[in-house]
Write a structure and sequence with these properties.
Serine Threonine Protein Phosphatase 5, Tetratricopeptide repeat, mainly alpha, 58% helix
């Protein structure tokens, strides 16, 4: 997480006037999810086109304070951070890593959050932290082809070809469609059909 994070740097989970709700329980809390998504998280917000009640960042902030582990909102926030080249997009209360910290505090066993976070960390050039999150993701979701593939790519980039191959084999056994990792391993003689 954040290097010098104080205990409440990323805010308490409770105390928000609406929520927090667990996104893994969204099917049992449809009414609460609909309220947030109807007013703060439509396709324009998700696709970073425009905010509904304020800026895109402010609507994502509201959504993630109500639903800390909202997968699509976390993905959108990560994309906004990358697009705007800032760790704290306009309208957000905390840096992006805080929203992931809050999501993990909400449900440390949410493998999708770990996978999204790992992808974000990879894109901001924090490969060791990305590997850490993706290792947790594959433990929580051993049948996630995407998590294995992305972890394999990170290991390949770190020249740990044996681990890259292990995760590539798992990803392709789970029918991952993109040949990139396999092709990279073939090119250096670490993959045989």
């Amino acid at each position: 997480m954040l290097a010098a994070m104080e205990e409440n740097y990323c805010g308490e989970l409770h105390g928000h006037h609406f929520g927090p709700f667990d996104y893994l329980n969204r099917f049992n809390l449809k009414g609460q999810l609909d309220v947030v998504e109807q007013y703060h998280f439509n396709s324009d917000v998700e696709n970073l086109i425009s905010g509904m009640s304020a800026s895109v960042g402010a609507d994502l902030d509201y959504t993630l304070r109500a639903w800390p582990n909202h997968h699509r909102a976390l993905t959108a926030l990560a994309k906004l951070s990358l697009r705007d080249k800032t760790s704290r997009p306009r309208g957000t209360k905390w840096p992006v890593e805080c929203y992931f910290d809050r999501a993990i505090r909400m449900r440390s066993d949410d493998g999708t959050v770990r996978m999204i976070y790992g992808g974000y960390l990879s894109k901001i050039e924090k490969p060791n932290q990305a590997i850490e999150q993706l290792e947790i993701a594959v433990k929580l979701m051993p049948d996630s082809a995407t998590a294995h593939y992305n972890l394999g790519l990170l290991y390949f980039d770190k020249k740990n070809y044996s681990k890259a191959k292990v995760h590539a084999e798992k990803a392709y056994a789970l029918n991952f469609p993109l040949p990139g990792l396999r092709n990279r391993l073939k090119k250096i003689g670490k993959w045989s059909d």
